[in-house]
Amino acid sequence: MSMSERLDSAPTKRLKTLEAQAKEAQRTIDELRARDALKTQFLSNVSHDLRTPLAAIITHAEILREGMLGDLNPKQRDSLSGIVSGGQQLIDMIDEILTYVRSASDQVSLVRTDFDITELVDQVRMLNQALAAKKHLTIERLNGDDLPPVYADRDKVKHVLANLIGNAIKFTPDGGRAWIGFSRRGRDGEDLVVEVGDNGRGIASDNYDLVFREFAQVDASPSRPHHGTGLGLAIARNLVELHSGTIWVESELGKGSRFYFTLPLNPPRD
Fold first, then answer.
1. What pLDDT digit, counting tens, does each position of 70-111 carry?
2. What is the pLDDT of residues 160-178, one digit of tens each?
């Protein structure tokens, strides 16, 4: 082979090597996507299959607790109340997994309507009042009486608020405080910024990204005081981004956390 032929063949060999590497990379990507799809389907199937027997256990425990099958003494009723409470906690965790699976696999669509965001916030506050009262916490709405309607999926926004307010209650010590506030941003104030804050234990700055990751927890030790799926903030992020919004956190250890997310405001109509 002449010198010129050898020189001509070198780029060809490099091109073939690059093509082979690209094909291998694509095969790896396809395999990872297939595994992710299998993982998502597995979570969906397992969650659904667990929910049905758990719902039956809760229903039968409630029947017994209410004395429908005979009188019970106080200790027996307390024991059944524990079964109902624990079962409901498991149901809530399963529902979180199902919601995550649907949002992560693009099975969630938005049904946008005009609604009063402050009315929705007050509803979520009321639903969490009993839990807050156990810890002697206050949940305040700071402002928002003059806001125009939000144009979004009401149920999805309610889920985001419930997750953020639930976290504020969970990670704030007894006697603490949580709040919800509003501001507007954008050239014409077309976006609403919702703030959910607390004066709890706070989050270190190097964990800001971690808290929004699936199944991630800042304290993942078995002895941690708060348990859950680690999906609440990941679901909130997915639902906010589905509205083309953003979500972020500002916090400092020992000084509480403030979670923010944006929603589109629907300007008043003539």
1. 898 989 999 998 998 888 878 888 877 777 777 766 667 889
2. 999 999 999 999 999 999 9
In this structure, the strands spanning 177-185 and 138-141 are parallel
26: tokens are 């694509």
Q: Measuring CA to CA, which residue among 198, 197, 203 is closest to residue 183?
A: 197
| Beta carbons of 93 and 229 less than 8 angstroms apart | yes
DSSP 187: T
Residue 214 confidence (pLDDT): 74
At residue 193, φ and ψ (nearest 5 deg) are: -105, 120
- Going by C-alpha positions, the residue among 171, 210, 204, 197 that lies closest to residue 261 is 197
256 CB-near residues (< 8 Å, 6+ apart): 172, 197, 198, 199, 200, 201, 202
Confidence of residue 54 (pLDDT cuts 50, 70, 90): confident
Written as one letter, the residue type at 37 is: A
Residues 6+ apart with CB under 8 A from 152: 110, 112, 113, 115, 243, 263, 264
**Can you give the pTM of this predicted structure?**
0.70
pLDDT at 46 over 60: yes
Question: What percent of the chain has pLDDT above 90?
Answer: 33
End-to-end CA distance of the chain: 82
DSSP label of 268 = P
Write out the DSSP string of 196-245: EEE-SS---GGGTTGGGSTT--S--STT-S----S-HHHHHHHHHHHTT-
How far is the C-alpha of 108 from the C-alpha of 100, rounded, in Å?
10
Residue among 111, 117, 122 nearest 149 (CA): 117
Task: Report the C-alpha gap between 201 and 181 in whole angstroms.
Answer: 20
Q: At what angle do helices 232-242 and 154-170 cross, to 10 degrees?
A: 150
